[in-house]
Amino acid sequence: MALADHLRELRNRVVKSVLAIVVFTAVAAFYHKQLTDLLLNPLPKCSSNGLTTDGQKCGVISTIGLLTPFTLALKVSLTAGVVAATPVWLYQLWAFVAPGLHKHERKYSVSFLAAGIPLFLAGAVLAYLVLPATARMLISFAPTEAVPIMPAEDYLDVVTRMVLVFGGAFELPLLLVMLNFIGVLTGKRLLGWWRGMVMGITVFAAFATPSADPLSMLALAAPIWALYFVAVGISLFNDRRRARNNPDADLDDEEASHVDLTVEGVAGAEAVEASDAPEAPAPVPAARREQMDDIT
């Protein structure tokens, strides 16, 4: 395909993804109040004395401004639309890349697409589950006599970022397995990178999580550590399977493969008689040889 055709194909895939997100966002808009209550539920509730029922500090959600409730409902609906449309935009991404893959790579990519959807949703669910502990830890830093007042928009921005970051981070091990299946990375190399990967995942979690508390950072980093080692195990198993089917699969491009030099007899071969052998060519005279040497 020409460059213009690729750009046209990309535009069509993006339009289909956006339309799916818009449709799911419109459906979620009818339930924006229930969704907002669901997202606000992890916050510790205040009692009459300004503390939670177990005596810990709590925060008060506020909406400031005339347009804030509408903006809040739009953000909640859009976040729900993006999460609900995950199978659609992941499929459109795969459909754009698939024509450039080999037949066996397309077979693998369908499986990766099927695994990528639950992984993204699992990351989003984990982000929601760690929200209560994250909120309690952040509110605990407030002064004793102060009552934290949290704008709803700021809180939902934190929730949205956590959902998208957690969901996207859960796709990293799947990407490593994909690179192994198409022959770019080996399981042995991935295992040798484990120290750097653990450190890199920790640093990524520290910068990717919206809050600076170590709890949310570890909540993101620990599952990715586990998924990384699962990806290493799958890659090692795939390398062994590939080695059984093709002993030369792990050879470098500059490494020679094994050559079988065993000599086997040819069935039905006949010995050549001396009388059937071709006659030897006549010897070249000495004068002719000297002339040939001069010409050379």
TrEMBL record:
Bilayer disposition of the protein: Multi-pass membrane protein
Its biological purpose: Part of the twin-arginine translocation (Tat) system that transports large folded proteins containing a characteristic twin-arginine motif in their signal peptide across membranes. Together with TatB, TatC is part of a receptor directly interacting with Tat signal peptides.
Pfam entry (one): TatC
Protein name: Sec-independent protein translocase protein TatC
Entry's transmembrane regions: 14-32, 76-98, 110-131, 163-185, 192-209, 215-237
Primary gene name: tatC
Family: Belongs to the TatC family.
Primary location class: membrane
Quaternary structure, from the entry: The Tat system comprises two distinct complexes: a TatABC complex, containing multiple copies of TatA, TatB and TatC subunits, and a separate TatA complex, containing only TatA subunits. Substrates initially bind to the TatABC complex, which probably triggers association of the separate TatA complex to form the active translocon.
